[in-house]
Design brief:
heterodimer, A: 207 residues, alpha/beta, 6 helices, globular, B: alpha/beta, Rossmann fold, seven-stranded mixed beta sheet, six-stranded parallel beta sheet, 19 helices, 40% helix
C-alpha cells in the first residue's frame, strides 16, 4: 500500500496512561532502524493525568516539523473511540483510522456514542478500521494494557505503516523493559494471527 | 544503564530534546547541576538524578529555582562547570539572582536552561515568553529548534560562557524539549574530581556601588564582543539566497522547522526553502545585527516568524530603519500572539505574505468538541481531603485558595474547590490579603514541595501581620505533578517549621481519618489566628 513515500505521518490519540508515548518511542526506533529521518512530539505533565493526549510521529526522507499538519495524517491510531473526535482535522480522504473499539466514560453532556463518532469520522475518510484490541487483549492476558501494541503490530502486518513487522518487533525489545517482553511479544504474535485470519476474509473490520 | 552514558561518539540515537541537553552538558564536562522540577524542563534534572553516580556529576533538586541558581552561582564562583534547569516561571523566581550574576559574570562556565510553554500545555498562571529576561539581564540566549541543536547549542553555550565569562541561557519550548529525533553523539568529557576552589576576589564577586556601575559597563562590553561572535556564528544561518529576492523570512526555534515544512507544502517541487530565502537565528541575544541587515537590505518584504510576543519583529523593524526604510515587516499582523504556532498556521501566513493560495484543510468542519478533564489518580489522598472539606463546610460560603500542584484539579469537576490560583506559594500570601480585606472564611491548599518552595515566608507573614486563614498543607511526600522528585520533607518535618513560624493552631492528620479531619476544619475555621492542618498521606506512587 505505502511503498514509495516521501514522508509518513502518524497521529496517536487516547487518554493519559494508555501508553501513547511508548508507542511513539517504538515507532521512532523502528523508523531509525530502517534508516529514516524522523521527528516526534509529545506532551508531559498534569494534563496527561487521564486527560486527552495526542502524540505525533513523522518519518521519511527528510522531516522538518515534529507536528503533523492539519489534513496530513496518513494514519490515525485511536486508542479510544471518542478521542478520535480530537483528531479529525488531521485527516484527509486517504487517511486510515485504526481504532481500538474501546470507550472510556466521559464527564460530558450527551457524550458522542460509538456510532455517532464513526459517522462523523466517515465525513473525513471512509477508511475506518475498528478493532476489538482491548477486548482481545483482556481475554487473552486478563489485562488490556497491551491494546496499543496490538494495534501497532496489526498496522505493520496489514501494511498500514510502511515499516516492517520485524523492525517493530526489534523496537519493542529496545523500548520495553525485558520483564515485560513476554506479554508484549505474545501480543505482537496475536496480531500476526489475526491479520492472517483477516486476509482470509474474516470478521472484525468495519469500514 | 543509561543509553546516554553508554552510547559511543559518532553513533546516532533517538533523544528527547531535554535528554539531548543532558548529553551536550556531559560532552562539555559539566560538574555541578541544580534544578527545581517543572514541565517542560523536568527531564533534564531527572536524567541527571538517575545518572549522577555513574557520571560523577554532582546533582541536586534545590528548594526552588532561585536557590538552584544561587547554588549554581556559588559553584561557578568556585570554578566548576555548571548547569541549572527550570521552567519559564522558575526564571521569575530566580530573576533576583540572575541580574547580579550577569554583573559579576561566571567563573566556571554556566548554562541556564529555560523551558517555555506556548499554549500552556502544562502551565497554569501565564503564557510567559521568557526571552524578555535576555534584555533585562543582558544574558546571551540561544534558541535550539530540535534535539540535535539542543545538544550542540548546549556545548556552544558552555564554550561562550567559558570564553566571555558570562552565563548563557538555552531557551527551549515544549515542542523542542519534548521532541524526539536521532542525535549524533560526541565524546563525553568526564567531570573529574568535582572539587572547586573559591579564590577571594571581592572586586569580581561583590556588587556594591560604586563598583556595580563599573560592572554594568563591563557587562555591556562583554555583550559587544559576543555580538561579534554571534555575527560569525554558523548557528545564525541562511537557507537559500537573499539576493534578487523580493521577499524573505526570518525565524528561530521550533518555528524554523514549521517554516521549512510550510515552504515544502507551498512549493512542493522546489528544494528546501521552496526558493524563499530563510534566515534562521540561533542567537536570540545578542542578535547578529550585521547579518540581519545584509539579509533585509534588498528585500521589499520580510516575514518574521516567532511564537508569542514579537521581540524579533521589533528588533528587525529597528534595524530596517537604518538599512532599508522601505522594507515592509510582517509578523504578528499575520500570525497569532497567543498560543503556539503550527506548520499550517505558518503556511497560511506565508501564503498571504507571498500572494499565494493556501487553505488550511478541515478548518470549516464543525465537530462536537469533547472535553476530557484530567483526574486525580484513583486512590490519591487528595480525594479524601476534598471530600472531608465538603462535609465540613458549605463550599458556597468559603473561599478556596489554590496553588501549583496536582491539587489544582480541585478547580475541575467533580470538586469545584478553587476560587483563585496564581503562582507557586501564592495561595497563602493572597489568603492573607483576602482575610485582611474581608470578613469571609477562607481555606487554602498548598502542597508540601510548594510549601518549601515559596510558602514559608507567606506563612510567617500571616503570623507577623495577624490574619487567620486556614492553611491545609497537602503532604504527599513527593513533587507528584512533575514526576515524583524528592523534596526537603525527606529530612525536615513540616510541623516543626510551622511551629517555629509561631503558628498555634496546628494538627497533623491522615485524611483517611475523615471524622477527625472534618472536626479540625470546623474548629480551625473559627479561630482568630492562622491555622494549619497538615494532611499527611503519601502519594500512591511514593515507594
Amino acid at each position: 500500500m505505502v511503498k514509495n513515500f516521501e514522508q509518513f505521518n502518524i497521529l496517536i490519540v487516547g487518554t493519559g496512561g494508555q501508553g501513547l508515548i511508548t508507542l511513539l518511542q517504538i515507532l521512532a526506533e523502528a523508523a531509525l532502524l530502517e534508516g529514516k529521518d524522523l521527528k516526534t512530539s509529545e506532551l508531559h505533565g498534569l494534563s496527561q493525568r487521564g486527560g486527552s493526549v495526542e502524540v505525533h510521529v513523522r518519518f521519511g526522507k527528510k522531516i522538518y516539523s515534529p507536528l503533523v499538519s492539519q489534513g496530513k495524517a496518513d494514519l490515525i491510531l485511536g486508542l479510544e473511540i471518542q478521542e478520535c473526535l480530537k483528531a479529525y482535522y488531521f485527516a484527509n480522504p486517504k487517511t486510515t483510522f485504526l481504532i481500538n473499539k474501546y470507550l472510556i466514560p466521559i464527564h460530558f453532556k450527551n457524550p458522542p456514542t460509538e456510532n455517532k463518532t464513526l459517522n462523523i469520522l466517515k465525513k473525513f475518510s471512509k477508511k475506518i478500521i475498528l478493532i476489538k484490541a482491548a477486548d482481545i487483549c483482556q481475554k487473552e492476558f486478563g489485562t488490556n494494557v497491551t491494546a496499543g501494541i496490538y494495534l501497532l503490530s496489526l498496522a505493520s502486518f496489514k501494511n498500514l505503516i510502511p515499516l516492517k513487522p520485524d523492525s517493530i518487533l526489534k523496537a519493542i525489545k529496545k523500548i520495553i523493559p525485558e520483564k515485560y517482553w513476554e506479554i508484549n511479544l505474545k501480543t505482537f504474535n496475536l496480531a500476526k494471527q489475526e491479520v492472517k485470519k483477516l486476509s482470509k476474509g474474516n470478521k472484525t473490520i468495519i469500514t | 544503564m543509561e543509553k546516554l552514558l553508554l552510547s559511543k561518539p559518532g553513533k546516532k540515537i533517538i533523544l528527547l530534546g531535554n535528554e539531548a541537553i543532558v548529553r551536550g552538558a556531559l560532552e562539555s564536562g559539566v560538574q555541578f547541576v541544580s534544578t527545581y522540577p517543572g514541565t517542560p524542563a523536568s527531564e533534564i534534572g531527572d536524567t541527571f538524578y538517575r545518572i549522577s553516580k555513574e557520571s560523577g556529576v554532582y546533582m541536586e533538586y534545590s528548594t526552588n529555582e532561585k536557590v538552584a541558581l544561587e547554588g549554581a552561582i556559588g559553584a561557578s564562583f568556585s570554578g566548576l562547570k555548571t548547569l541549572v534547569a527550570m521552567k519559564n516561571f522558575g526564571l521569575n523566581v530566580a530573576a533576583d539572582s540572575l541580574l547580579p550574576f550577569c554583573y559579576t559574570g561566571s567563573k566556571g562556565p554556566t548554562v541556564i536552561v529555560i523551558g517555555d510553554d506556548p499554549s500552556c500545555w502544562s502551565s497554569a498562571q501565564s503564557e510567559q515568553n521568557s526571552r524578555f529576561f535576555s534584555y533585562l539581564a543582558h544574558i546571551p540566549t540561544l534558541e535550539p529548534s530540535d534535539p540535535q541543536e539542543c545538544k550542540d547549542f548546549t556545548k556552544l553555550a558552555f564554550q561562550i560562557s567559558e570564553k566571555f565569562g558570562l552565563p548563557v541561557i538555552i531557551r527551549t519550548t515544549t515542542r523542542v524539549a519534548h521532541q524526539r529525533t536521532p542525535v549524533k553523539l560526541g565524546k563525553i568529557t568526564r567531570p573529574g574530581r568535582v572539587i572547586g576552589k573559591f579564590i577571594k576576589d571581592p572586586k569580581r564577586f561583590v556588587t556594591m556601588p560604586p563598583r556595580v556601575l563599573e560592572m554594568k559597563k563591563e557587562l555591556l562590553e562583554k555583550i559587544e564582543k559576543i555580538k561579534e561572535f554571534s555575527e560569525k556564528s554558523p548557528i545564525n544561518s541562511l537557507i537559500g539566497k537573499p539576493s534578487r529576492q523580493e521577499i524573505g523570512i526570518i525565524t528561530s526555534g521550533v518555528s524554523y522547522l514549521y517554516v521549512m515544512e510550510a515552504l515544502k507544502e507551498l512549493t512542493p517541487h522546489q528544494r528546501a526553502g521552496g526558493g524563499l530565502p530563510v534566515l534562521k537565528l540561533g542567537f536570540f541575544y545578542p542578535l547578529p545585527k550585521k547579518k540581519i541587515k545584509i539579509f533585509i537590505k534588498n528585500l521589499e518584504k520580510v516575514l518574521v516568524v516567532e511564537e508569542l510576543e514579537p521581540y524579533l519583529e521589533k528588533e528587525i523593524e529597528r534595524l530596517a530603519k537604518d538599512t532599508n526604510p522601505k522594507l515592509k515587516v510582517f509578523g504578528k499582523n499575520l500570525l497569532p500572539e497567543v498560543g503556539e504556532l503550527k506548520p499550517e498556521i505558518i503556511a497560511q501566513a506565508i501564503a498571504k505574505f507571498a500572494n499565494k493560495k493556501f487553505l488550511i484543510p478541515n478548518s470549516r468542519f464543525l465537530v462536537p468538541k469533547i472535553k476530557r478533564f484530567p483526574q486525580l489518580c484513583p486512590g490519591c489522598p487528595y480525594w479524601l481531603v476534598f471530600s472531608a472539606i465538603k462535609k465540613a463546610v458549605n463550599p458556597k460560603r468559603v473561599i478556596f485558595g489554590g496553588d501549583i500542584g496536582c491539587y489544582m484539579l480541585a478547580g475541575l469537576p467533580p470538586h469545584f474547590l478553587q476560587d483563585y490560583l496564581s503562582c507557586m506559594g501564592s495561595s497563602v500570601g493572597i489568603a492573607h490579603g483576602i482575610k485582611k480585606a474581608t470578613k469571609q472564611k477562607l481555606i487554602t491548599f498548598i502542597g508540601d514541595s510548594t510549601f518549601f518552595h515559596a510558602g514559608i515566608p507567606a506563612l510567617i507573614n500571616t503570623v507577623f501581620n495577624k490574619s487567620n486563614p486556614l492553611i491545609i498543607v497537602l503532604e504527599n511526600q513527593t513533587t507528584a505533578m512533575t514526576g515524583h522528585q524528592p523534596h526537603p520533607g525527606k529530612v525536615i518535618k513540616i510541623e516543626d517549621i510551622v511551629l517555629a513560624c509561631g503558628v498555634k493552631n496546628l494538627k497533623v492528620i491522615d485524611p483517611i481519618n475523615q471524622k477527625e479531619f472534618i472536626g479540625a476544619v470546623k474548629e480551625f475555621l473559627n479561630k482568630k489566628e492562622v491555622s494549619v492542618i497538615i494532611a499527611r498521606r503519601p502519594c500512591i506512587f511514593v515507594k
